[in-house]
Amino acid sequence: MSFTNQEKFVDSPRRWALRGDLLDFTAAPRWGDTESSAVRFDRGHWLLVEDGRIVGRQAAEPDATWVRKDHAGQLVLPGFIDTHVHCPQLEVIGSYGTELLDWLKRYTFPSECAFADPARSRAGAEVFLDALLASGTTSAVVFPTVHKVSAEALFGSAAARGMRLVTGKVLMDRHAPDGLRDDVVQAEKDCIDLISRFHGRDRLAYAVTVRFAPTSTPEQLAMAGALCRADASLYMQTHVAENRAEVAWVGELFPQARSYLDVYDAVGLVHERSVLAHGIYLDPHDRVVIADRGAQVAHCPSSNLFLGSGLFDWPGAAFNVSLASDVGGGTSLSLPRNMLDAYKIQALRGERMTAWAALHAATRGAAEALQLGGEIGGLSVGQTADICVWDWAAGPVAEARDAVARELHERVFAWMTLADERNLAACYVAGRPML
Ligand code: GUN
Ligand code: ZN
């Protein structure tokens, strides 16, 4: 079955070179450091790309055998990695007046029912992935819906674009409306089939996808844990400790569990490839468990503010933290917009988040936490050419601000504060232009 048309994407030359102000990371910057040796900034340097990979990074102009794209005076970053976002929720962005549990019931669950229709799933995946690319996000860890076809559609559309994508059919067999529940036996069969067809193919990977503890029976959670234990190369994604009422509900549903996180950990769902969204209401023991297991928390700042969920303790995290839009709880697919919200969350906590912390979490930090550091998240030789070119400023306000910035962090922080998809000048996935 074909899910999308490939013709829409133009091919690029086999060998080409791009010049601009290259910015990426060689390590994790320390919290609070505005000057950091982890930041690698090469103004007006060239990246050489061959067969979709970066093969050179240099000051010297390449010879005439290289097709040249000159982005001098523009900011060149690795494509962003959104580690937690919901494909079927574009239509519920900006839904008024609720916290998490009512928001799910009133807006999100009814909207997700439509993805039972294969045509709707396919059209939704196409629009969603194009919107990610238009925001400068070239890789993502994505929730589809409970419907198998919604995962198939995402895999198909991502493969057509050559994108690095992690997803898997959502598991939910209780506390959800008709048309949005599976059962343990059929869900297991669907997962096994999807894993055999998509996991490790092209740049696709499968994530065992538990929506959250309240919508899975203990039997389904045990099945999900068994899938992870049977194949350590699988990812796992879920939500944890996002909202106070949600945490209290999990306590009622799983009275034997030490904590919300423990519901997952007890069945083997917390491991090196686990992406745990939110993690606002973790206790000190949970924090140690996440660090020990090598799992990551996907911090979802615009969602946490919009749904009034709470203020994530980023500087207190001894585990990997990546950055995520969590659309449609989140209000923008743009990771710079989410970085600004992350800054405001820390400001409310009396902390200061640097542009380096945010950019690292959206690039190299996420890539390493996903064990994909050799492939994505940077502009090093050998990595796949997932590259975005940004205008330093878009419009008179940003231009005025950019003109007076003195040192690098000041300039990049102002860019992060003011930038959105209007700033995106070019986006390449494995060397192919996507805009
Ligand atoms: N918890 C369970 N499902 C969801 C969801 O779709 N969005 C958010 N933000 N939290 C959830
Ligand atoms: Zn979410």
Automatic annotation (TrEMBL):
A Pfam match:
Amidohydro_1
Output the PANTHER family linked to this UniProt entry: GUANINE DEAMINASE (PTHR11271)
Listed EC numbers: 3.5.4.3
Q: For the Amidohydrolase-related domain, which residue ranges apply?
A: 75-432
Q: What is the designated name of this protein? A: Guanine deaminase
Reading the lineage from the top rank, the first entry is Bacteria
InterPro entries reported in the protein's UniProt record: Amidohydro-rel, Guanine_deaminase, Metal-dep_hydrolase_composite, Metal_Hydrolase, Metallo-dep_hydrolases
Q: What lineage is on file?
A: Bacteria, Pseudomonadati, Pseudomonadota, Betaproteobacteria, Burkholderiales
